[in-house]
Fold Serine/threonine-protein phosphatase 6 regulatory ankyrin repeat subunit B.
Amino acid sequence: RCGIHNMFPLHLAALNAHSDCCRKLLSSGFEIDTPDSFGRTCLHAAAAGGNVECIKLLQSSGADFNKKDKCGRTPLHYAAANCHFHCIETLVTTGANTNETDDWGRTPLHYAAASDMDRKKNILGNSHENAEELERACEMKEKEAALCLEFLLQNDANPSIQDKEGYNTVHYAAAYGHRQCLELLLEKTNNMFEESDSTATKSPLHLAAYNGHHQALEVLLQSLVGLDIKDEKGRTALDLAAFKGHAECVEALISQGASVTVKDNVTKRTPLHASVINGHTPCLRLLLEVADNPDVTDAKGQTPLMLAVAYGHIDAVSLLLEKEASVDAADLLGCTALHRGIMTGHEECVQMLLEKEVSILCKDARGRTPLHFAAARGHATWLSELLQIALSEEDCSLKDNQGYTPLHWASYNGHENCIEVLLEQKFFRTFYGNSFSPLHCAVINDHENCASLLIGAIDASIVNCKDDKGRTPLHAAAFADHVECLQLLLSHSAQVNAADDAGKTPLMMAAQNGHIGAVDFLVNIAKADLTLKDKELNTSLHLASSKGHEKCALLILDRIQEQSLINAKNNALQTPLHIAARNGLKMVVEELLAKGACVLAVDENVSRSNGPRPSSATDVQKEE
């Protein structure tokens, strides 16, 4: 009968150090090298469990100490991984190969260097009552790892062997914070610490710094010359320590002269940037003590202050402002820290910037001020405060590069509270800027309440204002199929048949875009004029049919009886029947024919006529 992972009773007895049980099971004739689901024999189990008596018993019974599991690991790998010194000693003494590699290229020495002290921490937890026990357990584990490592080194284990990722024993000891192991390696193999031939993407220094092992880091710093070596992304050990918030590692690296201004290869960020991203203020403070410039920029032109504000790290923002970081510095897109604070909604960060008299009319690359951002994001309180400051400025230009004002942005995004704040100022109760007005912006996104606010606060006449293409808000609502907005505009006397510069009415706009709801409303409720034509002499029926919108075409056709409309021709001499037939609109064709559409109508291309093509004179002669 098997247990978990198909482990046999002998596996379990060996794992749990029950030597008497092992003897009884062996006497029953059990095949000693029988593997479990992972290819582990009972000798693997004994090595993992750390019982020397079981190991000796199994070996004396013929267990193969070179047998590998499915990952290529021998019992010696298991003993080393668990820091079982006496098991390692027994296996090596009886001939186990200290340089045998598993499927990842790792030797028992790698596993000894990587024995996990943090596992004890996870078991004991971080409570105060366990602190002393935790410390003792870690110290004991550290000594055991060093003892195992030393024994393996004394028995010809090669610390320079690299696994398949290029990591050697030093990398593993650094990554897992084994200070004593590193000291041993430093004593015996000093030249390994520079690892000039390593193919690993990260150095031992990077691994120790990233994982916060400051004691291991200090050992490495005693022998390494280059503190600013970079990983595959161009990050230094200081960058990684700052990013992870390991203040003791940051302090150790700085004290040895690591550069605080070196930039990575990808984002071109410095350790200063790395520390603020996650709000590690203690690390930032250490870095600022030696940094010459708190406004160093990354590849996007962003300063540490911009990132601190964007991520809402209040303490970091406060510290940077204390160190006189520039509040008005702009990135490559022209955005300042204030733009970012308003965009991300971090109230305390924004307030700190305002207290530093930051420029509130600074414009980004698209000409947008922080007021535009506040209006677009719905921050009415900030908008009110910023507006009071802005209107007191002599040069108060509140149009972005496309002529859009904060009122445009608030209307477009449906922020009624911001619209109310803006309309309190007489300045905004007259539309100016881009002729695609705030009312256009509101209705195209179906913000009916915003549209109602604008009409009520300004004047009902704005329902017929036109943009630079002659389109009214009614065109915009029809274009987007927002029936409620159409109703609102028409209730305030919007001109249902207003034509834009291309001669298109709102109905034509809706028909061309296949908006059934808008077409139905404009045709049946608003009674839009179906006889109107655009500059190409297309009626709304032509346009609906030309885009294949059969339901819209049928709605319009249902209201048409006049033969002049049924057979109306556009500039290309095409009737609705031409267009419907060409686009395969069967129901429209049938309805047109039922209403008397002319099948012999000829457009400007004879081949596209509705009827049969007339025979040429030569064809007649051939028939004769």
User: Anything to note?
Assistant: Residues 384 and 421 are 6 Å apart (CA to CA). Residues 119-128, 611-624 have pLDDT under 50 and may be disordered.
